[in-house]
Amino acid sequence: MSSRPRSVTRRRVLTAGAAAGTAAVLGGAALAGVETEVLPGKAWLYHHLGHDGPDGVLPDVVPAPVTTGAFDSAARGRQVGWSLARPASSSSSSSSSLPLVLALHGRGQDHTSAFRADRMGLDRYLADAVAHGVPPFAIASVDGDASYWHDRGDGDHAEAMLVDELLPLLAREEDIATDRIALIGWSMGGFGALHLATALGPTRVAAVAALGPALWHTYDETAPGAYDDAADFARVGVMGRQDELAGIAVRVDCGKGDPFYATTRDYVDGFAPERAPAGGFELGDHDSGYWRRMVPGVLRFLGEGLAAG
């Protein structure tokens, strides 16, 4: 389930339904309005015109083995599930420990979404990446529900769970190194990855990659339940805080048909030119098909970032 904006901005004065038509119905002027995001409905239009681009295809490889488990989280006040994928064989010559990539899922998903074939299939992409020379690493995922990966006023502290519970749990695995990690996230998890990288800083995070991150300029635009209130939004928001990622390798990818395209573009434009994120914008929607298309380049980026760090 995708994160969607809660309210229509002043620029978007027509309802999404008014923009839901074919190009022939919309006519040239209306089509131009959708293209420049004056009108809503761009993601719908791109999909029905076939402008999403191809879906990413899972590599035809033996997936990296995945271990699953669960623990009672005091930070979240509930049991959470987790998964960990390791390459079947690694050839790290400097250490027997694998660096870790933490994968943060989108709203309405869970820890299995990172590795399910109908979602992200990261176990397959990881195996393929290592086979093609990417420095090996492990990928862990965990349940975040609809927390938006930060501590909430109702006592659900997903961020504390990640830092104070999940990472220490994984550090007890003899072959996993958690002292300096990388992050990948999509939709809600894309925001979460950027937020957590900002919060932890370069001493703990080597690289971060956000796919179609759920970003808004103001609290009034946000999806219901994403933040407690305007103060919570201001406390954990990443817009305007790009300088705090200095020392971290950053990659941001977003489809041009994604409803978060405009805000994500503004976020990327907020970096100093010499620190412009890797990645970019191309045809694609706010869905797993587009995100999977980006994953091979993203995993190479993260693997190389961890190896360099």
What is the CATH topology? Rossmann fold
Share of residues in helices: 25-40%
CA radius of gyration is 19 Å
**Overall spatial form:** globular
Distance between the termini: 34 Å
Unreliable segments of 5+ consecutive residues? 1-39
H/I helix tally: 9
- CATH class equals Alpha Beta
The largest sheet, given as strand count, sense and whether it forms a barrel, is:
8 strands, mixed
Number of strands: 8
CATH superfamily: Alpha/Beta hydrolase fold, catalytic domain
Strand percentage lies at 15-25%
Describe the structure.
The chain is of the alpha/beta class. It has one domain (66-308): Rossmann fold (3-Layer(aba) Sandwich), CATH 3.40.50.1820. Helix content is 32%, strand content 19%. The protein has nine helices and eight strands. It has helices at 16-19, 23-35, 42-48, 122-131, 158-171, 188-200, 230-236, 261-269, 288-308, and strands spanning 66-73, 78-85, 98-104, 138-142, 176-186, 205-211, 249-255, 278-282. An eight-stranded mixed beta sheet has the order 1-2-4-3-5-6-7-8, sandwiched between helices. Helix 4 packs across helix 9. The longest helix is centred in the C-terminal third of the chain and has 21 residues, at 288-308. It is globular and about 45 Å long. Mean pLDDT is 88; it is low at 1-39.
Could you list some keywords that capture this structure?
Rossmann fold; alpha/beta; disordered N terminus; globular; eight-stranded mixed sheet
Give a brief rundown of this model.
The chain has 309 residues and is an alpha/beta fold. 32% of the residues lie in helices and 19% in strands.
